[in-house]
Each structure stands twice: as C-alpha cells, then as structure tokens.
Design goal:
Length: about 300
C-alpha cells in the first residue's frame, strides 16, 4: 500500500515502477522475475576535484580513505555529454565525486535534468554542506535536487547537527570502520535518516587500511551496534557492500529482507564515471570506456556481469 506522494511512474522492460517522495519504490508485474531495459538509478561521478576538509589554518586535507582518490586539482566531467540525453524520465541519479560543488556547470545541468524529469540527488561532505547549506536548500526548494546525502566521518558540532535535522530529504552517510562511534551517538534520537556504507578497500582506501589495520576491528564493533542504531535513527539503510560486510541479513526477518532488498549491484543499477567517461556495475567494479551514447547499451553490458 502506498502511503506517500507518487512522484513518478514508468514501464521498464517487463515491469512497472512507482517512485514515491519518501524515497520508497515499488516494482510490480505478473511475472516471477524483473527484466529491466535501463537502470532505475545510477551513481554518477561528475568531479574528481575536492579540497577535502580545510583545517583552522586554511590548509586542505584530502580524505585519507577516498576510494576515488580525489584531490584539489582533480578533473571535472563534461555535463553536456550526450549519454545524459538518453536517460529515461524518473531515472534517479546520485551525483558525487570529489566535490560536486566544484563543478561550474552544475546548476545548468540540474536545470536541464529537472526539465527532463530526471531525479537528481547529490552527496556532499558535511564540511562542504555546512559551507553551502543555504545554496543546497535553495536547489532543493526549487526542485533541482531531491535527496541530499551528507557524509559524516567526525563528531558533528551542534550547529552541523541542526543542519542535518533541517530537512527530511537529508540523509546522513557514514562509512563502517571510519566514522567514530562517538559521532554515531551524537546523532542518536535526532530523527535522522542514516545510510551506512561499506568500507571500500579501493583507491586511497587501500592505503588507509594498511596504515590503520584496526579498521577491520572497528567494522566488527560497528556491526555489533546495528540493533542499537535501529532504535536511535528514524530510518536505517545500507549499500550492498555494507549489507555484506556487516552481515545485515541476520539482523532482519526474512519478510523484511524480501520486501526491502532492492537487488544486487548491476541488477537495476550501475555506475558512471563521467570524469574519465567510463562505466561499471558499481564504483568498485572494473570500469570500461563508454562505447555508446545510449544508456541502454551500457546497462545491457552491466547486466551480463550479474
């Protein structure tokens, strides 16, 4: 039963899809399987430029664990690439980087996507979100972006916590093994939605793990607190890597798993690195050069891997 406002409906291959404004999604057909022709959602990297976190002296420090190895002189994507013209209305795209705020063509791109009924979300580091909160709110209020994922890897200040709580479409993103448990507790009982990401031993994340072997023990500690997190956050969700690393299936009923699990990587989703113009099943999968300007062609190749 649908209890939220419907923002989009479409046909994809052999099934119908309904998207609601609370982020929920319903797939249905008369068959016993789903066979999509295009991705329902995609992670799209549009910037490899990022100053990381700037310290009190104004010195930027790129995140040690960044799996994309973003840096202050990183490259930017061509947001006029024709692949974007092939996206089906109500496709959900999560724009990330690097820092998406570094891209000078971001707003015209968001405006163009809004005209085509593409649902744009974006991920920002908490420090960058704090600096651009008024601008992000304006984009949200004008329908340029829908959801905002805000990456937290340190204990938020009281002011940052107020910003995190200011909109129901804001979702806190944390990385298992990186975010301090104290940061999690600071966010308890604030009505926040939480997305837990698995640790990516990829890019700078591989070097970080070598320097911080205790990360694996911290992931185990994090897993043990999953039942507690469920009690203190408004909504708890996971990416597929976290589902595996944290053994989430044992913490939920079979019915809850069957109704909530949205599919393996590549089944309904894919990844685009528009900086290097490459595509993949996920951000930690082998990437291949974009060979077609039709997203269906790329998605067809991705689905061969599952």
């Amino acid at each position: 039963m649908i209890g939220s406002k419907i923002i989009g409906k479409y046909r994809n291959g052999n099934y119908n899809c309904i998207i609601c404004d609370d982020g929920s999604k319903i797939r249905y057909n008369d068959a016993d399987f789903f066979a999509p022709e295009f991705p329902e959602s995609m992670d799209v990297k549009i910037s490899n430029k990022c100053n990381g976190v700037v310290d009190k002296d104004g010195v930027p420090h790129p995140c040690e664990f960044c799996h994309e190895k973003s840096h202050p002189n990183g490259d930017l994507a061509n947001l006029n690439h024709p692949i974007f013209d092939s996206l089906h209305p109500y496709t959900e795209i999560a724009l990330g980087g690097g820092s998406v705020l570094e891209h000078p063509d971001l707003v015209p791109f968001l405006e163009r996507m809004r005209e085509r009924h593409i649902i744009c979300n974006m991920t920002l580091h908490l420090a960058h979100f704090e600096q651009a909160a008024a601008k992000v709110k304006l984009w949200h209020d004008n329908g340029l972006i829908h959801g905002v994922g805000i990456s937290v890897n340190t204990i938020p200040t009281d002011y940052q916590l107020t910003l995190l709580r200011s909109n129901s479409d804001f979702v806190v993103h944390v990385i298992a093994g990186v975010v301090p448990i104290e940061a999690m507790m600071k966010m308890y009982d604030c009505g926040l939605k939480l997305l837990i990401l698995g640790y990516k031993n990829y890019g700078r994340g591989e070097h970080y793990l070598e320097l911080h072997p205790e990360t694996m023990a911290r992931i185990a500690q994090f897993e043990a607190l999953i039942p507690e997190f469920k009690e203190h956050f408004k909504l708890l969700s996971f990416d597929n890597l976290a589902l595996s690393q944290l053994h989430i299936k044992k913490y939920v009923s079979e019915e809850e798993w069957n109704t909530s699990y949205m599919g393996d990587d590549g089944q309904f989703t894919m990844y685009l690195d528009m900086v290097k113009e490459e595509y993949a099943k996920s951000s930690i999968s082998n990437r291949q050069p974009i060979f077609s300007n039709d997203i269906r062609d790329l998605f067809s190749e991705v689905r061969k891997e599952i």
